[in-house]
Structure formats: C-alpha cells, structure tokens
Amino acid sequence: MQIDQQDFIQYLTIKKKLYPNSIRTYSGRFLIIKKWLLLNNTELSKQSVENFLYEKKDKEKLSNATVNTYIQTLNHIEGYCKDRGLPTGFMDGTESLPKTQPEINPLTPEETERLLNTHLDYKNRNGVSCNDLDFKNLTFTNFLAITGCRFEEAASLRVKRLDIENERAFIINTKNKHNRFIFFKGSIKQLLEKIIKGKNDEDLVFTNSKNQHIHPGDFNNDLRLRAKKAGITKRVHAHLLRHSYATQLYKSTHDITLVATVLGHRDIKTTNDTYVHLDTEFLQKAIQRHPLLRKYIEPKDILKDIKLSIDSFKIDDDERFSYNATMTNNGLEVKIVTK
C-alpha cells in the first residue's frame, strides 16, 4: 500500500475535518492494515480486505464494534485514494457489521452526586506534577454530567466559546455537523472560572496534566477509579454520563423533543432508542396520567405521585426554602415557603 501516513492524516484533518481522537484511532488502524498487507505481500483489493477483516473477526475474536473501526478506516483510505487519484473499488460490497448494544445502566441522580464529590490522589508522572489533575478531571466530569454533551465536544471546547456569564457554551463541529448551545448552572461556574484563569481565547478549556488535549482512555480510567472509590458498582465511562443526563432530564420533563434538542440529535428516534432508559415502574406511573386512565386510579395514589413529583425537585435540600409535604388520611398537605 503506497500511501504515506502523514498525507493520510492530513486528508483526515483537512478534507474530513475529523476530531483529533478519531484521527489517532484511524491512523493507528492504518498502520496495522499497512503492516498486514506487507506481511502478506499483497495490495488493497476486495479479496485482501475480506481476508483481513475475516482474520480480525474469526482468528483474533475482535468485537463487531472493533472490526467496524477497521472498516471505517478502510472506507477513509478509499476516500483518500479517490481524492488523490489512486485505484479504488476495494471496499465495494463491504458493509459494517451489526452493532451489538451493550446493556446500559444509567447513574441515578444520587450516584452522580457521589461521583462528583469524590476526589482522587495523584502522584507525579514522568517528572510532571499532577497536583491539579484531580481538579481538572473532576471539573471535566462535572461539565459532562450537567450538560449532557459528548466527550469530544467538551474536550475540544475553546475558551472563546465558553460564556460563563450567560451560563452556556457554543459547541461546533459536532458529530452530526449541527452547531448548538449547551447550558450549565450552579457551582460549575466557579470551577470553570478557575480552570480558564490565565488562558487565551484559543486555548482548550479542559486539558490533561501536560496541558494537552484529554485522551478518552486516560479519562475513562480516571472515571472508573473515581466511581469505585464512590462505591458505584456500575460500569462507568464518559458516555454513560450523557446517557444518565438524558434519562434524568426526560424523567423530569417528560418531553422527548426537548431532550433530543439538548443532546443535539436530529432524529428523536435516536434519543428514544439509545439514550432514554426508563424502568417499567416509571412507564407504568407515566401512563396513569392519561385522562382516560386517571379516573381508575385511587385518589391516594394520585396524591402520592404528586408528592413524589414535588420531592424530585429536592426542595428539602435547598437552604432557600422551607418545605414540608405530609400525607394525611384524606389528603396531601404541602407547604413551601421561601426564606
């Protein structure tokens, strides 16, 4: 395969406008493909592509998702060849393997709070001080958890697109090429003010210990350690924060269109099928709000649901309010007063 790796990277960067992490992945796969072709003394063709993918799937027992990254890389290589006037057609008839959706168990609001209040101790790495790494990673975790944005959207955010005063950030070059605002509130504002102090407009808001772009593998390792220390037994990773955000927002608003808009989805089906994880009990209670069904529900059960809805605002934990909601024999007594 007479393709220069640096020229291929340039193509992915300029022509395809891919994120740095995606470019690193495809560049690594590119080298593996090139080495395999060299060892097998062959060039890119339909047959060699089929043989390569079969070896990855059958002999190395790679998952469909991992094999698909090789297929995506080969598609980019073919795009590169077409752009540079080189022979193409070796990907004709090759399609991605079926996706196998792993079971996703979103974090509850309580688990999210525990995660965001758990600190880690770091030692110096390769002579580099890591004293502020816990603050950096925890602030990044906070930002992902309360905005629901994708990892790469946050990792690529520049200072000039962060509007702390108006509690929002402008996200560009998104996965679906649809720019949007994301919003935040609360203590994250002070954390963001601290993390961008002394930075220029073109600097990244979030960086690693070397003040470079955060690598997803490093961050997910940090997140798993943080979750373990917080006593969370679920499989925690950066994208789970997005799933958890979506589920919690839908349970609070019951508005799938709003959730899809906030997440930056063009298709509501993506939001509903992939991101909103609702348990049976929640769905059963939700349909009880239908006017044709409500008359069959016991009045005391309706009052209990009203109390649960009010409780979900966590007013009793807010020092600005005096709150009391009590179920009585014949009703619900609620008193909410601002202090």
Q: How is the biggest beta sheet arranged?
A: 3 strands, antiparallel
The CATH class label of the largest domain is Mainly Alpha
Q: What is the ordering of alpha helices and beta strands?
A: HHHHHHHEEEHHHHHHHHEE
Query: What proportion of the residues is helical, as a percent range?
Result: 40-55%
> Would you tell me which CATH topology of the largest domain applies?
hpI Integrase, Chain A
Strand order of the largest sheet: 1-2-3
CATH superfamily of the largest domain: Intergrase catalytic core
Number of strand elements: 5
Q: What fraction strand?
A: 5-15%
The average pLDDT value, as a whole number, equals: 88
Second rung of CATH, namely the architecture of the largest domain: Orthogonal Bundle
Terminal CA distance: 72 Å
The tally of structural domains comes to 3
Low-confidence stretches: none
User: Count of DSSP helices?
Assistant: 15
Give the overall silhouette: globular
Radius of gyration: 25 Å
Structural class assignment:
mainly alpha
